[in-house]
Automatic annotation (TrEMBL):
It comes from the Bacteria. PROSITE patterns: MFS. This is MFS transporter. It comes from Oceanobacillus indicireducens. Pfam families: MFS_1 (PF07690). It is a multi-pass membrane protein. It is found in: Cell membrane. SUPFAM superfamilies: MFS general substrate transporter. Its main location: membrane. GO terms for cellular component: plasma membrane. GO terms for molecular function: transmembrane transporter activity.
Length: 332
């Protein structure tokens, strides 16, 4: 679906239609993410999920660098329209490849309930019950989401902050993004190699603290060199955090309700993210942008320390086991 709608973007007569297509693309992504998360949990054994998520972070980081480079080369050698069509074909090709993945779930299509208001309410009830019975899992996952929303708010002001406050040129900003991608790629490569030697808890804590430190350095930076240090650090350790949280989530949420729970969590994240980013934009107009970014970074750092203490509690070690000695259904 996303590939087909990307094909339509070159034919859009105005920005309103383009925004409408982007909304539809986001809807398609909202369907794909919970489904892929659940499928990975079904397909990959518990003891191999950390390794898989590490390799996936490496691939994503590589795509972060290679994708824009290929896109820029295509725009220069062909046109924007042709680049969009090639991108759409890549989505369709990826969808075809997905058809060859093994079926790991037996689905009785006749037993699938119709999409009604009452069914949506029942889904919310299932998620509410899970959150009530699994308070620690909910706290860790939603806590990580909230901390990430702080980073999204800073990222929304990134171009203005780097160019107007720090004084970077467009070329320096482009180099900054590329160097950040290289940092992510190196971090993902090392994580792929050493993931089996690092505990899940340490992966999450080290990734979170150092990722936040990168944002703090970014907030206090004053030159191109100083901001590069911050971005390389946050890019390097972001893959540790993402792979760790993803593995924790897949190991502690029952597969049969993972899709519904992921969808509701994403809904919560999207709602908070929109409101928070708009609020930060207003605050940045009322006070200095530097003060806003510094405050966000310091709050992130404090929240990360509190979060890390919760992760490292000795009595919560069972939530971070990486073998088949536990069942997701038994974790409360």
């Amino acid at each position: 679906m996303r590939g087909l709608f990307i094909c339509l973007i070159p034919y859009a007569p105005n920005m309103v239609v383009i925004y409408g297509i982007l909304v539809i693309l986001s809807v398609g992504k909202a369907f794909y993410n919970p489904a892929s998360m659940t499928y990975v949990a079904i397909l990959i054994p518990t003891e191999k999920r950390k390794r898989f998520n590490s390799v996936r972070s490496f691939v994503d980081s590589g795509a972060f660098i290679i994708g824009p480079a290929i896109g820029g080369a295509l725009i220069l050698s062909t046109s924007v329209e042709a680049t969009l069509w090639i991108n759409a074909v890549s989505f369709i090709f990826a969808a075809i490849l997905l058809l060859f993945l093994p079926e790991k779930e037996e689905i009785d299509k006749e037993a699938i309930p119709a999409l009604t208001i009452s069914q949506v309410v029942r889904d919310f009830t299932v998620v509410q019950k899970f959150m009530r019975e699994n308070k620690y899992v909910t706290f860790i996952y939603l806590g990580s989401i909230i901390i990430m929303i702080f980073s999204f708010a800073m990222d929304a002001q990134e171009v203005v902050f780097t160019q107007q406050v720090i004084g970077l040129s467009e070329l320096e900003y482009s180099l900054l993004i590329s160097i950040t991608g290289i940092g992510s790629l190196v971090g993902a490569m090392l994580l792929t190699i050493f993931s089996n030697k690092m505990s899940l808890r340490h992966m999450i804590v080290i990734g979170l603290i150092m990722w936040t430190v990168g944002y703090v350095i970014y907030a206090f930076s004053w030159s191109f060199a100083s901001i590069i240090v911050g971005f390389v650090i946050l890019g390097f350790f972001n893959v540790f955090l993402n792979a760790g949280i993803m593995t924790f989530y897949q190991n502690n949420v029952p597969i049969e309700v993972m899709g519904r729970i992921t969808s509701i969590y994403q809904l919560i994240q999207s709602a908070i993210q929109v409101i928070f980013i708009l609020a930060i934009g207003v605050v940045a107009d009322l006070v200095s942008l530097r003060m806003t970014i510094v405050t966000l970074a310091l709050v992130m750092l404090v929240a990360s320390i509190i979060f890390s203490v919760s992760v490292l509690k000795p009595d919560k070690q069972g939530f971070y086991r990486e073998d088949d000695g536990e069942s997701n259904l038994e974790v409360k």
